[in-house]
Structure formats: C-alpha cells, structure tokens
C-alpha cells in the first residue's frame, strides 16, 4: 500500500488573513515545502491561476499539485451557476493533474469571522439539507464528468462541521460525492476521524493531517472562541507537535487500503511558527508513522 505526502501553503501565507505571511513569496513556500521532503502541495492565493505559469514553478521544485480549496455556495447558487464559478479553478486543476478538488459548502460560514463564536455557526434546516444534498449530488456528477472528483471537507464554522453532519451528508449523497477527513477539524468538532475512516473508507479520497494543541483547544471550547481566534491562539499545529496519535488512524487507512495523499495542514502565524521548521516536523513524523503502519511512501 502506497501513499504520497503533501502540504498546504497556509503555514507560509494565510489567504483569510493576508497579513500573516504576506511578504512570503510563493517561490520560498515551494522551495521549502520540497526541501522538507514533500512531493505535493495544495493551491493557495499566491498561486498562478493558469497552468502555463504554475506548472514550471511546481516542476522546478519537483512538486505536484495535490488539490486545493474551493468554497461553494450551493444554498444560494444552482449547480450550473456554481460550476461556472469554479470552472477556472477546475480547469487549472485538470491541467495540473490534481487528483481531486477540496470542496466545502460555505454559505453563511463564520470560519473567517473575527467576531462570531463557533456556537453561532449556521445550521441546516430539513429543507436546506434536502436542497444541499440534491445540489451537491448534481455538481459532483458534473465534476466527475470532467475527471475531477469532489472531496468534501467538513470544516469548523460551516454547515457541515460535526461527525454526525459529515456522516449524514455522505450517507445521503451519491458515490460521486467523495470524502476528505481533516483530523484537526474533526477533533475540534469533538468527533472521531478513525470512525469516519472505518465507516466511509470507500468514499475517502483525501486526508488533511492537522494536529491540535489540546490545552488551546480546551480553552477555545470553554471560551466559545471564534475559529480565527482559536488558530491565532495556536490551536493548530503539524502532526508530531500536537495531541493526536496518528498511528491508530493510519493503521485503519492501511487496513482499508487507502492510496492517496496525506496533506499536512496547519494554520499558524508564521512569525511565531517558522513554516519550514514545522514542515520538517510534520514530514518526519508522518513518514515515520506511515511506514510503521505498513505504508510505502512514493517520492
């Protein structure tokens, strides 16, 4: 069983808060990601929007585009309208041979809101559940017809946040709707990533390895923090630096024959957490633990 290790650029430059890592160049991010050992990187706001510009930059550092975020508003837009909005990104991902597109419903999301606590995040009515399921089925089929699978990302501050909501979405959508498990977001939502991997391995196509500093998480939950404040307080870190033991999770992935990307992702202030140093911590821990669980790592 083989996997690949990738990383997200959010540790170098934060798209939601451009002042974090605003002066860091894309070239530095790519070079350091590669030097840390990774063979893939997800897209970010500083990435060129066309493959003619992006591919040479990736190839220079022997990196592959291994996915990237797309925030949809299917509760407001029809699938056809949303597909038109995503088409430039989908085209870029196809041209760069990305294995999937990270997808989340962000209508009324508070993930970037500096004032609204997580307890006030939007929740779906029964009619909205029906609408979202119908529309995500339709757009996932449109994406699959283009050869670009939709990898649904449960995310703090959005309408699909908890283990129960993630389970309901996957159980009620078609097989064209694939699953992304984010270990940090699921722990923050007090859910169980191992259980999701056990139950939905046939739909799982992408994994975000985000770790948590437990003392900061406990404080954030107790104080009902905003999502932004939680990560500014240092809730997130790379695997090997937080409270998550990845071995049981990776053992389940190996048992279920997962073959895809493990992507290190940790929103941190780069002025406080040097992105290159933390990238090395994440790579070393994940590669060691994955090998212990029987995985071969493709370089």
Which terms would index this structure?
299 residues, alpha/beta, TIM Barrel, two-stranded antiparallel sheet, 11 helices
Task: Tell me about this structure.
With 299 residues, the protein is an alpha/beta fold. It has one domain: Divalent-metal-dependent TIM barrel enzymes (TIM Barrel, Alpha-Beta Barrel), CATH 3.20.20. Helix content is 41%, strand content 15%. It is built from eleven helices and twelve strands. The chain has helices at 26-35, 51-60, 79-95, 126-145, 163-172, 183-188, 193-199, 214-223, 227-232, 246-255, 275-292; strands at 2-7, 40-41, 64-65, 69-72, 101-105, 150-153, 177-182, 204-209, 211-212, 236-237, 261-264, 296-297. Strands 1, 2, 3, 4, 5, 6, 7, 8, 11 and 12 form a ten-stranded parallel beta sheet that branches. The protein has a two-stranded antiparallel sheet with strand order 9-10. Helix 5 links the parallel strand 6 and strand 7. Helix 3 (79-95) packs parallel to helix 4. The radius of gyration is 18 Å and the shape is globular.
Strand-helix topology:
Layout lengths: L1 E6 L18 H10 L4 E2 L9 H10 L3 E2 L3 E4 L6 H17 L5 E5 L20 H20 L4 E4 L9 H10 L4 E6 H6 L4 H7 L4 E6 L1 E2 L1 H10 L3 H6 L3 E2 L8 H10 L5 E4 L10 H18 L3 E2 L2
Parallel strand pairs: 1-2, 1-11, 1-12, 2-3, 4-5, 5-6, 6-7, 7-8, 8-11
Antiparallel strand pairs: 9-10
Helix pairs in contact: 3-4, 7-10, 10-11
